[in-house]
Specification:
two-stranded antiparallel ribbon, 10 strands, eight-stranded mixed beta sheet, mainly beta, single chain
């Protein structure tokens, strides 16, 4: 915490006062938060994960989960429904987030329940998200759902993540929607 005009304020993890030199090489040392989480997407029609909308990855994604939450909203052109937002450290050691809904959300819940029954915290392991092909019995259309597995992380890595998570500004991570003004 720092004090400004006698008021306690939280110190920013991002230097917003100066430009970065385009010729300097940006080095990732330790877990990196750039001021906003790297945006991952699960493209359940294609059956692959993406960074943003253009960089296509593979069928699996490793995540070291920092936090997760459920909320209900009408976003991304979908009807009002329940969403799961997962904040995690990606394989490049960058703080990221991804959203899931419907069957994938249910699969995540089942993994968390299994971990709870075994007295394991999700943040003490590595979660692997994998696209699995499905077919709708109602429409016959093909799609992919995300299934999740968990394996324990090393004690050293758990301590590194725990120390980083203690100073992470979670309020800077979540998607916010602005409610329309009542008319």
């Amino acid at each position: 915490m720092t004090k400004k005009n006698g008021t306690a304020t939280q110190k920013s993890l991002v230097d917003t006062s100066s430009f970065s030199n385009g010729f300097d090489q940006f080095e990732i040392t330790g877990i990196t938060f750039t001021g906003k989480p790297r945006q991952y997407r699960s493209d359940c029609q294609l059956g692959k994960f993406k960074i943003g909308s253009a960089k296509t990855l593979g069928r699996t994604l490793s995540m070291e989960v920092l936090a997760f939450r459920k909320f209900q909203d009408e976003i991304f052109g979908y009807d009002f429904q329940t969403w799961l937002e997962v904040v995690f450290v990606d394989p490049s050691n960058i703080v990221a987030h991804i959203m899931f809904k419907t069957e994938s959300l249910d699969n995540f819940d089942e993994m968390v329940l299994d971990l709870s029954a075994n007295k394991q915290a999700i943040a003490t392991g590595i979660v692997t998200a994998e696209m699995v092909a499905r077919s709708s019995s109602a429409t016959g259309n093909s799609y992919h759902a995300v299934e999740f597995t968990w394996k324990p992380n090393t004690a050293e890595r758990i301590e590194e993540i725990k120390a980083f998570a203690e100073c992470l500004p979670y309020e800077a991570l979540t998607i916010r929607t602005i409610q329309a003004a009542a008319e």
